[in-house]
Write a structure and sequence with these properties.
heterodimer; A: alpha+beta; hypothetical protein PF0899 fold; three-stranded mixed beta sheet; B: 8 helices; globular
Chain lengths: 122, 235
């Protein structure tokens, strides 16, 4: 269950950011980018996040996961293609091996949405 | 009144592990030690392969093993018979070794040994085809094993490990006469996602192919040693 470890890493990173903010904002959403060509299952990540954030400053925060497709570039054909995961990774046209992955390996905390009290100047 | 804002982080989810891995690798480089991360599903023959390797190369290379296992020290005990230092790391419920656990192993070694005592450290990862591939530990090369009993389709179904491997060992080839398995197809399936991988078919039982594996190991270690020597001569 490596999603548990990944969620721990996620929470620590967000906590670092939160503690660096002077006014301790209310975090509402965390946006992640998870590539399809990784070992991460978004449903498991959502579950681990919900469990691990209970009764913490992140309780109830929405985890928004955007999945990116596996896209490779074939240098022989000079074009991108989408390998069929689990079946075929070589270029469908010329059968060159997949050696240049352009998308699908991402595992990134993209951004945080938060709300903050606007202090009135007058 | 509250207003909504967004803060861009753009931080890799595994950045802490990655930093730890780079830190481990810097230490290995500084000490002139080569490190291999050995990965496979449970029962593909990692420990058996290491037994043969420790036994065959003991007079030529100074080796040690960091052994990851979920609960027991059984594998570590098997390897200690070859008179090499073995650190067992029980990962508990975690299904892979991470860079912090391996740093702990290096730390333990540092109490009893000096860097000159080692040319090569094998990290034997937890048996698992999925996540060890995502967690670098500071290795210079990833060695993946796939036994022929697992089937030709496994590289296609569990691609990350095979796509990341520098060396793939197709193991238990002595069983080929009893199975409907096409070893060339296993190799083709891996090469279609990893054209630069070195593929060696071995049987630890009969010894077939082991010489090629030992040569690969020695070539890697020597290549690193000569590179390090060159670095020392720089002004």
């Amino acid at each position: 269950m490596h999603e548990t470890d990944m969620t721990k890493a996620l929470i620590l990173t967000v906590k670092d950011w939160y503690e660096s903010q002077p006014e301790k904002p209310t975090i509402t959403k965390i946006y992640l980018i998870v590539g399809k060509f990784t070992c991460v299952e978004p449903v498991s990540l959502q579950f681990a996040f919900e469990v691990q954030t209970r009764n913490t400053f992140l309780a109830g925060v929405e985890l928004v996961i955007r999945e990116t497709p596996l896209i490779a570039f074939c240098h022989q054909c000079q074009q991108e293609y989408q390998p069929q995961m689990g079946l075929q990774y070589a270029c469908p046209d010329c059968h060159s091996p997949m050696d240049d992955i352009r998308s699908g390996r991402e595992l990134k905390i993209d951004r945080i949405e938060y709300s903050s009290l606007i202090t009135k100047n007058n | 009144m509250h207003q909504t804002f967004e803060a861009a982080l753009e931080i890799n989810l595994l950045h802490a592990n990655q930093e730890g891995a780079e830190h481990n690798r810097e230490h290995f480089d500084q000490w002139g030690i080569t490190c291999f991360n050995v990965m496979s599903s449970p029962g593909a023959g990692k420990t058996e392969l290491l037994e043969k390797t420790l036994s065959a190369l003991n007079s030529e290379l100074k080796m040690a093993v960091i052994e990851g296992d979920m609960t027991t020290e059984l594998d570590a005990e098997r390897l200690r018979q070859y008179n090499v230092p073995v650190i067992a790391i029980n990962t508990g419920r975690s299904c892979h070794l991470d860079s912090k656990m391996v740093a702990g192993g290096i730390h333990t070694f540092s109490h009893q040994y000096s860097p000159q005592d080692f040319d090569l450290i094998f990290v034997e990862n937890v048996g698992n085809l999925v996540c060890p591939a995502e967690f670098e530990v500071g290795e210079h090369a990833k060695v993946a094993l796939l036994s022929i009993t697992e089937g030709e389709d496994k590289p296609l179904k569990y691609p990350i490990m095979f796509q990341e491997a520098d060396c793939l060992l197709i193991t238990k080839t002595d069983l080929a006469p009893y199975l409907d398995v096409d070893i060339d197809r296993i190799a083709d399936n891996v090469r279609q996602m990893n054209p630069n991988v070195t593929i060696i078919s071995v049987s630890a039982k009969t010894g077939e192919g082991l010489e090629a594996w030992f040569n690969w190991v020695q070539t890697q270690v020597k290549a690193r040693l000569s590179r390090d020597e060159k670095q020392f001569t720089l002004p």
